[in-house]
Design brief:
alpha+beta, Glutaredoxin, 2 domains, 10 helices, globular, binds S-(P-nitrobenzyl)glutathione
């Protein structure tokens, strides 16, 4: 049975791979699981049919047989638990992998989202500059800690796991920015993730959809 994902029909990033379906595609590509995609307009996201799959009216979702799942952390964990290749067999290494998956989504990603949200919503507000400075500082501290924990390893727990898919996907949001470039080990870690053929395929698939539907130059 082929899983079906949902994704933006017209991703606001014009297919640069920043929407969260890319991390799910990446996981599926890593384990060699073919998938289909149902593309949704912004209006369709908020319709009852989609909210029945995703309570918050967001992408991505994952349907396979009688399972309908949402939240990228849960989806990637499910893929890792039902296919070989993304989750170590050793019990402690598995627990460490899951810890890093949570860390990517609850200890690192929120500060990146806070910066983006402040840029977007609070630009020009009296409190905007202070809020931005605070979020940027928190992110710097978190990335210093992440850098130290990664150390000289290629991947978070040594071997490549589902945790690296989530952590690299989160770091992609600050790719090319000083906060990442000033931490060369983290920039190199992200580059290793992006160089993986499975990531390349996931990126190409979502870009191909955007360009076919909306044009390469738009
Ligand atoms: N915690 C959820 C998860 O991990 O699955 C968050 C899901 C989520 O934020 N989905 C976003 C969404 O559906 C798309 S990924 N938003 C529509 C809505 O809430 O109405 C976030 C995103 C969107 C666009 C870009 N971009 O253009 O660069 C990047 C990331």
């Amino acid at each position: 049975m082929i899983p079906i994902l949902t994704a933006f029909d017209a991703s606001p990033d014009r297919g640069r791979g920043l929407a969260r379906d890319t991390r799910v595609r990446w996981a599926l590509e890593e384990v060699g699981q073919p998938y289909e995609v149902r593309y949704l307009s912004f209006a369709e996201l908020k319709e009852p049919a989609h909210r029945a799959l995703q309570p918050f009216g967001q992408i991505p979702t994952y349907e396979k047989g009688d399972l309908a799942l949402w939240e990228t952390g849960a989806i990637v964990l499910h893929i890792a638990e039902t296919h070989a290749g993304l989750m170590p067999k050793d019990r402690n290494a598995r627990a460490q992998t899951i810890a890093w998956m949570f860390a990517a989504l609850s200890s690192v990603e929120p500060w990146i989202l806070e910066i983006e949200s402040t840029h977007f919503h609070d630009r020009g507000q009296a409190w905007g500059a202070d809020r931005l400075a605070q979020a940027e500082n928190r992110l710097r501290v978190r990335l210093d800690d992440l850098d130290r924990a990664l150390g000289g390893k290629n991947w978070l727990i040594g071997e490549f796991t589902a945790a690296d898919i989530l952590m690299c996907s989160v770091l992609l949001r600050v790719k090319g920015e000083p906060v990442l470039d000033e931490r060369p080990r983290l920039a190199a870690y992200l580059a290793r993730g992006e160089a993986r053929p499975a990531y390349q395929r996931s990126f190409a698939a979502q870009l191909e959809h955007y360009q076919r539907r909306h044009g390469a130059g738009s």
